[in-house]
Amino acid sequence: MRVWLNQHAQAFSQVTRRMRSHKLATFLMFMLMGVTLCLPGTLYVIVDNLNRLAGDIQSDSQISLFLKLDIDSGTIHDIGEKLRAHPRIQEHRFVSRDEAWENLQQNADTAAIAGNLERNPLPDAFFLIPVPLTPEEIEQLQKELQQWDGVELAQVDTDWIKRLNAILQLGQKGIMVLVALLGFALVVIIGNTIRLQILTQREEIEVSKLIGATDSFIRRPFLYAGTIYGLGGGLVAWLLLVGIISLFNLTVAELAELYASGFRLDLPSIQTGLTIIASTVFLSWLGSYIAVNRSLAQFD
Amino acid sequence: MIRFDQVSKRYPGSNQALQDVSFNIEQGEMVYVTGHSGAGKSTLLKLIAALERPTSGTVLINQQNISHLRSAAVPFLRRKFGLVFQDHKLLYDRNCFDNVVLPLHINGISGNEAARRVRAALDKVGLLDKEKAMPITLSGGEQQRLAIARAVVSRPAVLIADEPTGNLDETYAREIMQLFNAFQQVGVTVIIATHDVRDIKPQAKVLTLSHGRLTSQTGSTVGATA
User: Fold this and answer.
1) Any idea what DSSP says for residue A64?
2) Global confidence as pTM
3) Per-residue pLDDT tens for B104-138?
4) Burial classification of residue A12, based on how many CB atoms lie within 10 Å of its CB (0-12 exposed, 13-18 middle, 19 or more buried)
């Protein structure tokens, strides 16, 4: 056990010593990995935030229930009662056709249109706010309301939300592909770096093998090197990501204000950061493991 | 402790390097392997140190048949031997101390214990004051002594040297041979390949190879130590 710990401590200090004597190369390696990974990271954070925004909009959705023009007040009352009793409807508001007509005439923007019309073309209407529902449930509710007596049109605008969702899903898939490709690239880059290091230490490895070093003894410093590259690269990726999102937020805040919204991009969570670091560590460990094993096979 | 039984070794695409070689080496013996160049001396040493495996026949080291050894077990067998190579195989990117400490690191020994043993080994070969020097600044004889320090630092039971005096003048060569004798006197089995018959001490065992065959086997000091 002590021997084992000793060997790990030795390999670790050997690697850190070598990295300290090649500061620039090590720093560039960290940057390379960090920049490579902050690209999908940034996209992920943006899509994640848009998802959140889309979720907010969905739960805000309204259903407009336009009634038949020839409806009598008894049926209107019945519909009002049914809406009150419906478990999926949180709020409803009745706007009579006269009220709507008045609004139309008073509103400066629409007064001109109203002036051109000879008589009130507007139907009586209910405006409903459902409890928070998924787009599918809203569509179901819309179909149900459409069947009711005296309802001319139950209108809910979920189409654009569905489209947004589809685009966001596409975005997520795109990110997955990007992550897979860049992850592969990282394994190759690290593998190649470690392979070059092995070449420069060829003699040391040969001599070590001749005097009884096990394969894991030879592998250990290179695996540490790979892991440290991964750790540094992951940290750089995280910092870059926080920087980029903060920069975006300056503009996003202005834009959101124009839409009277307090929307901000959320900074990546600790969990996201740790995931990024864990995956870079794993990928670069994998890259070095493959490189070292291939080289060891050549030495025998 | 080392037993060869009808051992043959053939490298792909070349002549038979060794053919039907049988001998026995006891613990604490001083053994010379001689013969013309290309007679198979180096191959014989490589077989002993488990750097190669025989094509046929059996090589037994401490009752272990190296042909049947798992490759994961080979490094542990190699650690029983201290190897001195014809071309030193020193690492020129680090100082003398770091060259000698390498076998200890492989054995998982570090810190003060390692430093103490490295200094003891350097002292034995007379290079204690060169601890911080780079090997490239040493003379040929000093480099060879450094290689010996590295071979003995982990206190192996067997010291194997391939042409250790090959490139040295007579004074240096005599120093090196005295070193090997000193190790043999404290109980280390010493096996030296040499084409230089001047080196050979009269009481030593001599294995003479010619074209891969063992042509004579003389002398033995088994009685002296065993």
Assistant:
1) E
2) 0.72
3) 989 888 889 999 999 999 998 889 999 999 999 99
4) middle
Of A191, A294, A220, nearest to A14 by C-alpha is A220
| Interface contact flag, B105 A7, Cβ < 8 Å | yes
Instruction: Report helix, strand or coil for A71.
Output: coil
Query: Measured between CA atoms, how close is B109 to chain A, in angstroms?
Result: 7
ipTM for this prediction: 0.85
Is residue B118 classed exposed, middle or buried when 0-12, 13-18 and 19+ CB atoms within 10 A define those classes?
buried
Which phi and psi (to 5°) does residue A134 adopt? -80, 160
Which tokens belong to A46?
């943006």
**Beta carbons of A201 and A15 less than 8 angstroms apart:** no
Would an 8 Å CB–CB cutoff place B113 in contact with chain A?
no
Q: What average pLDDT does the segment B77-87 reach?
A: 90
**Other residues' Cβ atoms within 10 Å of the Cβ of residue B137:** 11
Q: Which one-letter amino acid corresponds to residue A35?
A: V
| Between residues A107 and B138, the one the model is more confident about | B138
Q: Which residues of B touch A211 (CB under 8 A)?
A: 78-79, 83, 102-103, 106, 150-151
The pLDDT tens digits of the residues spanning A115-139 come to 777 778 888 888 888 887 777 787 7
CA separation for the pair A124, B143 (Å, rounded): 105
Given a contact cutoff of 8 angstroms between Cβ atoms, the answer to whether B148 and B125 are in contact is yes
For residues A57 and A137, what is the distance between their CA atoms, to the nearest angstrom?
15
Distance from CA of B89 to the nearest CA of A (A): 7
